[in-house]
Amino acid sequence: MIEIDAREMEHPLPLEVTVEGFRNLKDSEVIHLIHRREPLPLFEIISKNGGFYHSYQSDDEAWHILITRDCHINLEHFRV
Amino acid sequence: MFRRGLSLEQAPPIKAVLRFFITLPVFGLILSCLMIFFPAEILTPSHPFSLSAIHLLFLGMVSMGMIGALFQMQSVLGGAPIPQPLGNSLIIHTLFTLGTLALVSAFMFGIRELFVVTSVFLGSAIVYFAQILLPLLFGKITHDTLKGMRVAIFSLFITAILGIIMASSYASQSFSDHHAMIRTSHYSMALIGWISMLIMYVAFQVVEMFYVTIPYSDWCKHNIKKILVIALSLKIIWLFTALPFEWFFDMIIVSLLVGFMVTTTKRLYTRKRRVSDASVWFWFAGMGLLGISLGTYCGSLIFGYAPLESMSLMTFGLFALSVILGMMGKIIPFLVWFHLNASGFMETPVMSNIIPQKRLKITFWLFVSTAFFTLISPLYPTLLSLAGASGMVTFGILFFNILTAFKLYYHISKNGTKFRFNG
User: Which residue in B3, B210, B344 is closest to A11 by CB distance?
Assistant: First the structure.
């Protein structure tokens, strides 16, 4: 799993870094993005480019976004 | 695996937003021309050229930029994008632009019929915009920023109604006994209810998001809109009933704006990542200009010195413009980058290369020089021409910045190659 902790990154770095990571993602790989907000525009980019994501908020209010391009991977299993 | 209920068409088409943004510097160029050639007239309160300049600034630039930003931000902050964004933005933009031009021409050339044309165009634009946006702001999602936006749009609507009443007075050249009160209510609603409210509530969201600052306090977010609405409403009631101590409500509003200025400056100054970024400079400059505007306004109330009031109004416009330019510096590269990436183009540049920081910084310093000369022009009127010359260059570069970003988007979307996955 590739982890990107974007909680202290200034906008728009979290988006740029994650999209770059998504572009280079191998089939079975998963990106775990940690963000202080739910990055709605990122979801649109992933979906339109054949990717899949799962997002949830942890108790510390951080957003966790799991991203893959393999439709067979159940992202809920990667929840931390 | 997708998030519940999320529309995947969140962002409006780039054209829907950029048509507002690219019109802003065009009105800036017209205003700069006026400043160069008619400085004395502009600095004479209530002179037709002065009224033209004020409306070029607050309608053609500040409101134009704010409506464009709302087209972009509604989907992100409100959770529901504006429906049929291309068609609706075309209608609103066209009516708003024609209405502003008609109003400016009506004042400058003294053509009474144009006040009627203004009422039809600007009134239609604002009513149409409000009836599209307000229902979206009352959707399932609700938070303080949305509530602040509701108040701002409602204030814009009231501002337009009062503006239409005044336009009919100018068209018929018959001014009622209440004309001065209507005028004060008109600009109070515009400056406080529409512009200040929207800037503050958008700041509550974007300052933290863009610059990784500590969040504003919940007390601010919950209560500022309520206090502003009460103070503004009572001020207008006091005006129309000629009760004493109306300035008391002004002081409440000034105190809130001072609080906003101090907390925003503090947050920006203590932000976690101190990246050199022209957009944050515009926010700092905006807060400084807001402070000067509030200081000169208080000075004008205490000393009754007219140039201070003019200075206050001008710096308030520059404060709003500075914040809007800071926002545009973030929104425009983001929109280009986002739409190209969503379409999967490999040639999508990094956001910081879409409008190079160097050019944004030049725009910033030119804006500062324009603001500086404008600010001291009530004391030395000829300097307004210099401010106009500086404004010409500022808005010329701003226009070029937006145009090149737009052209880059179209070039890549027509000639670019679509991304293929590795692996």
Answer: B210
Question: In order of start, what are the domains of chain A with their CATH numbers?
Answer: 2-78 (3.30.110.40)
Instruction: Please report the ipTM that was assigned to this predicted complex.
Output: 0.80
Q: Are the Cβ atoms of B6 and A16 closer than 8 angstroms?
A: no
Domain spans of chain B, in order of start: 14-411
Q: Does A59 touch chain B (CB under 8 A)?
A: no
> Maximum Cα–Cα distance for chain B, whole Å?
77
> For the segment A50-79, what is each residue's pLDDT rounded down to a tens digit?
889 999 999 888 999 999 988 888 888 878
Interchain pair A11, B330: CB under 8 A: yes
- Rg of chain A on CA atoms, in Å: 11
Q: What is the per-residue pLDDT across B323-347, written as a single tens digit (0 to 9) for each?
A: 999 999 988 998 899 889 888 888 8
What are B37-40's contacts with CB under 8 Å, separation 24+? B37/B385, B37/B388, B39/B377, B39/B381, B39/B382, B39/B383, B39/B384, B39/B385, B39/B388, B40/B381
What is the phi/psi pair of residue A2, to 5°?
Answer: -95, 120
For strands A52-57 and A63-68, give the pairing: antiparallel
Q: How many CB pairs below 8 A link A and B?
A: 82
Topology of domain B14-411, per CATH?
Cytochrome C Oxidase; Chain A (1.20.210)
A72 touches chain B (CB under 8 A): no
User: Running DSSP on this structure, what letter comes out for residue B110?
Assistant: -
